[in-house]
Amino acid sequence: MNSKATSTTVLDVINAHFTALTRAEKQLAETLLDNYPVSGLGSITTVAENAGVSTPTVARMVQKLGFKGFPDFQSRLHQELEATISNPITKHDRWAASAPGTHTLNRFADAAMNNMRETLSQIEPQEFDDAVALVADRKRSVYLLGGRITRAVADYLFTHLQVIRPGVTEIASNASAWPHYVLDMRHGDVLILFDIRRYEQEMETLAKSALDRGVEIVLFTDRWSSPVAKSASKVFRSQIEVPSAWDSSVVILFLVEALIEAVQSSNWDATRDRMKTLEGLFDSTRIFRKPV
């Protein structure tokens, strides 16, 4: 496949062509998306049988998507799967082999800006606004949880949302305690999750449990998309690759800060009153240094 951008995934391609597919091809596409990307890694016969379609249907659809054939289609899936499970050492070795001779600051700046542009080009403003409306609705409780690396971003969002509105809870990192939080979740509440490669299995379980209780799930993930996306009503996929052994949270943090601003502005009068009360508490406890 001659992709226009290396950041385009098979998932993106299927979604972009979905409306143009035949009924049988849509049936196949839905099967592939249901357990993506694993569902496309079997033989062409197995993939066809699992979807309840013929092998010629599989062959036609992958060519319609722009691949040379089924082997080319599977090769892309294997590349994506490898990318999602890469550890820091593998990621370092991959980019270091072809790293340009420019300074680290310049390499990082170029990668971060490209990530920002690509991410924003794929986000629908209305979907972002809908997520803002969910988080700003004070009738809904809001719960947050991040993964091993993204926990810092979840904590950052929690600290700000707690100032802006009541009813915000950060879920403890200990997965054995998560059922206690789910117990308090009500229909219509909001669960904000951060999950990037290598996706954490327990988080998918938490998302399914919350969805069963009618909770709206907002997911911040990477371009390959966490399995949690199947349970989420709002999904924001960010570009995270930079010339490093580690993935970058720059774009995810940008989206979080935009969310914070939008939520506080949606009901500024109530937010301002809450901020004034908090500032009074800070003054009474002398947490911060005051000018002499």
UniProtKB/TrEMBL annotation:
InterPro entries: Homeodomain-like_sf, HTH_RpiR, RpiR-like, RpiR-like_SIS, SIS_dom, SIS_dom_sf, WH-like_DNA-bd_sf. One of its GO terms (biological process) is carbohydrate derivative metabolic process. Coiled coil: none annotated. It holds the Pfam family SIS. Residues 8-84 form the HTH rpiR-type domain. One of its GO terms (molecular function) is DNA-binding transcription factor activity. Keywords: DNA-binding, Transcription, Transcription regulation. PANTHER family: GLUCOKINASE, RPIR-FAMILY TRANSCRIPTIONAL REGULATOR. This is MurR/RpiR family transcriptional regulator. It comes from Ensifer oleiphilus.
